[in-house]
Amino acid sequence: MELQVLATRLGLALALGFVIGLERGWKERDEGEGQRAAGIRTFSLIGILGGLFGVLSLGGDRILLAAGFIATSAVMAAFIWRENAREGVYGATTMVAALVTFMLGAVAVLGDMRVAAGAGVVTVGLLAYKSTLHGLLSRITSQELRSALVLAAMTFIALPLLPDRAIDPWGALNPHQLWLITILIAAVSFVGYVAVKLVGPSRGLVLAAALGGLVSSTVVTLTLARLARDNAARLGLLSGSILAAGGVMMVRVLVLAGVINLSLAVALAVPLLAAALFQGVAAWALIGRDGRSGSDTKPDGLVHKNPFQMSEVLKFGAILGIVMLAAGIAKSLFGDSGLMAVAAISGLADVDALTLSVANMGPASAIGVGAVLLCIGVNTIAKAVYAGIAGGLRIGITLFLLNMAAMAVAVVGYLLVPSLHL
């Protein structure tokens, strides 16, 4: 290994130890000199020590590295045991942090520096947010913990086992894709629930909705619309959050198109940004009116139960599967030449698939831009219908009128810019 590269890697090992030691030392900054087992200097030295043992192991023999790790562990364990005995506490965090620091130093020399740096940031974050994490544990229930475990099982056990290919004659039903969307339904719902518990009803729902719009605004619509049945007084908050997700979806489509086909993104920029701006302003107005009504002054102003119920999740997945199958059958009947018809049908379930298809067709054309806008328009209006079915007539009508207005703004924006008429 070249000297310059080796020096850089050892510098990273030292820096990782320094940052971890900075956090540990700050936590115990009131302790006098010699009153704590390890601080900023000790952790910095442990980091560089791990790096040096990594240098000694560059030849492939890891015996010295293992010996150094064991020796460092023994010394740190002795000092931390004495500190805990003096203070009458039982804590292993500093001990484990020291072991991690040693190994991070070794990885910085022997492995990928990006992995070492990323793991170091995560380590410092876990140490620094002790009170936040412990506060979360004090508020989480056993049912919520089981929900998170089921979601993890759905994602990391069931999903990889499903075939990632269409299983029907029309090429519409992909079990892997359908289950992934079902997981997203559950995840967005659960994240929204956790966000509400952590930061309060209004900010929690808006944040969850905006983040959900980066993945699927349809999922956000279904999730939040269900809450409207038990929270009629929070219609403004729920409707505004759904509109915020819709605005994020417009920007997401624009970015997605731009990554593949810049000319298509330029042609879509004015109508999509205009519609997103309208939805953002409407969301702000609805959420603000909800807050001024005083309904958010009570902690329990929003009834938001743990939404992770397998029956509900599977029901939404089944509905989405039916829509996808219907779209696939219709596409097979119309053929690829009927792009506008396919766009209208695809918009019932998703906008990304059609956007990617048009983006891959080459330079932007009037028919391609029109197909994407039609797909987005159908999807935007369909979400209002879905909201009405899931949450009741009031939220459905509210979203229908505002979404229609947003699409009218998009059409006006398209017609007023001559350069978009390809």
Break the fold down into its secondary structure elements and pairings:
Layout: H1 3-27, H2 40-56, H3 63-87, H4 93-110, H5 113-128, H6 130-139, H7 142-161, H8 175-199, H9 201-213, H10 217-227, H11 235-260, H12 262-292, H13 310-334, H14 339-346, H15 352-359, H16 366-391, H17 393-415
Helix pairs in contact: 1-2, 1-4, 1-5, 2-3, 2-4, 3-4, 4-5, 7-8, 8-9, 8-10, 8-13, 9-10, 9-11, 10-11, 10-16, 11-12, 11-15, 11-17, 12-16, 12-17, 13-14, 14-16, 15-16, 16-17
Describe the structure.
The chain is mainly α and 422 residues long. The protein has two domains: 3-135, no CATH class; 157-420, no CATH class. The chain is built from 17 helices and no strands. The protein has helices spanning 3-27, 40-56, 63-87, 93-110, 113-128, 130-139, 142-161, 175-199, 201-213, 217-227, 235-260, 262-292, 310-334, 339-346, 352-359, 366-391, 393-415. Helix 2 packs antiparallel against helix 3 and helix 14 (339-346) packs parallel to helix 16. It is elongated, with a radius of gyration of 27 Å.
